[in-house]
Amino acid sequence: MWSKVTAGAVLGLPLSAFAVGTVIYAWPGPWQHSMVVGLVFFFPLWMAVIAASPLFRSAGRAWLWLALASAAAFAALWLIKFTGFGS
């Protein structure tokens, strides 16, 4: 169980950051205007990932799926940021 929670804590941090960053950049207007809202939602999202991580069947699945989710969120953030979708 502790390895699943560790996966949620370690990989949940970038996952939450990338997910919040994606929403901030996709929001209409300058990203600075939605930064406070993003910071407010970052910590509860991270805690939700940590709390949900013991639901995985094994620690290996937790690490794999959270790593894939982090990579997908990073790709979405990169795509939105460099294509200028939110601006």
Contiguous low-pLDDT stretches (5 residues minimum) are none
Tell me the fraction of residues in β-strands, as a range. under 5%
Query: What oligomeric state best describes the polypeptide chains here?
Result: single chain
Rg measurement, Å = 14 Å
Inertia-based shape:
elongated
Give the SSE order as H and E letters.
HHH
The end-to-end span amounts to 43 Å
On the 0-100 scale, what is the average pLDDT? Answer: 89
Helix content: over 70%
- Give the domain tally: 1
Biggest beta-sheet profile: none
Instruction: Compute the number of strand runs.
Output: 0
Structural class: mainly alpha
**DSSP summary: helix tally:** 3
Question: What does this molecule look like?
Answer:
The chain has helices spanning 2-26, 35-52, 59-83. By secondary structure, the protein is an all-alpha fold. It has one domain. Helix 1 (2-26) runs antiparallel to helix 2 (35-52) and helix 1 (2-26) runs parallel beside helix 3. The model has no long low-confidence stretch (mean pLDDT 89).
What is shown here, in short?
The protein is mostly helical. The chain is about 80% helix and about 0% strand. The mean pLDDT is about 90.
What keyword list fits this structure?
single chain, 87 residues, mainly alpha, 3 helices, 78% helix, elongated
Sequence-ordered SSE layout with sheet pairings:
Elements: H1 2-26, H2 35-52, H3 59-83
